[in-house]
Design a protein that fits this description.
This protein is α/β, with parallel strands linked by helices and 226 residues long. Helix content is 51%, strand content 12%. It is built from 10 helices and 6 strands; from the N terminus they run βαααααβαβααβαββα. Strand 2, helix 6 and strand 3 form a beta-alpha-beta unit. The protein is elongated and about 60 Å long. The protein starts with a strand and ends with a helix. The structure holds magnesium ion (MG). The site of magnesium ion has 7 residues, from loops.
Length: 226
């Protein structure tokens, strides 16, 4: 394979987002429930409702993922909005999240030995994504970054991919996308003629004719790209 540039998803591709989110959410909801004398179930219910409402109202935008907005809405829903408390819940969440993050197996080895330019392409507000790269210790190997907050649209919208290609200064056929979401990462890339690796994806969805390949770890990806 002779790709000249890499487009990399971040969450659940370069590290386990689900695991970090689970412990961060538990910690912030424990703080919330103790503060307001709520059961764990009620606290979780308030969070899930706040999250769902935020996603509905801000669909297809980076702000739909904002933890600050989730906590703000959660406090508002129990009639307890407070500026400092909103920021405190957000701070608790991110402190635990960053601490819990671990790069996926072989990610560090892959990034440090793959010498073509790399652009992160990720759906989220910008600041947490920048922090994640630092906490994972992978920022020295990342040449460019596009968040959906910067692009104004989310994957699989072509604009966010086009922005990444422009930063790399490369044509679609010269690039490879690696991500865990078939719809957002692989179909988004494919719409522009970019080959992709459906990371840890369902084998049945591999479509070599369309340039979509399924691989389970970064060691294999490294060999596949040789
Ligand atoms: Mg992902």
């Amino acid at each position: 394979m002779s790709y000249k540039g890499l487009l990399l998803d971040l969450d659940n591709t370069l590290y386990n987002y689900d695991a970090a989110h689970a412990v961060a959410l538990k910690e912030s909801l424990t703080f919330f429930s103790q503060k307001f004398g709520l059961s764990d179930m009620d606290a979780l219910g308030a969070f899930e409702k706040a999250k769902a409402d935020n996603h509905t109202q801000l669909v297809f935008t980076a702000a739909s993922h904002s933890r600050l907005f989730y906590f703000q809405r959660m406090l508002e829903s129990i009639g307890a909005f407070d500026v400092k408390m909103t920021l405190k819940l957000d701070a608790v969440y991110w402190e635990v999240f960053y601490e819990a993050m671990l790069p996926d197996p072989h990610v560090l080895e892959f990034l440090s030995t793959c010498h073509i330019p790399k652009c992160i392409i990720t759906d989220f507000t910008a600041e947490p994504q920048f922090n994640k790269l630092i906490k994972l210790g992978i920022d020295p190997w990342i040449d460019h970054m596009v968040t959906s907050e910067e692009a104004g649209v989310e994957k699989p919208h072509p604009f966010i991919f086009m922005r990444a290609l422009a930063k790399l200064g490369l044509n679609p056929e010269a690039c490879l996308m690696i991500g865990d979401s078939y719809k957002k990462d692989c179909l988004g890339a494919q719409a522009l003629g970019i080959d992709s690796i459906y990371y840890k994806g369902e084998k049945e969805k591999e479509d070599v004719a369309k340039g979509i390949f399924v691989l389970d770890n970064f060691h294999d990806i490294s060999h596949w790209m040789e």
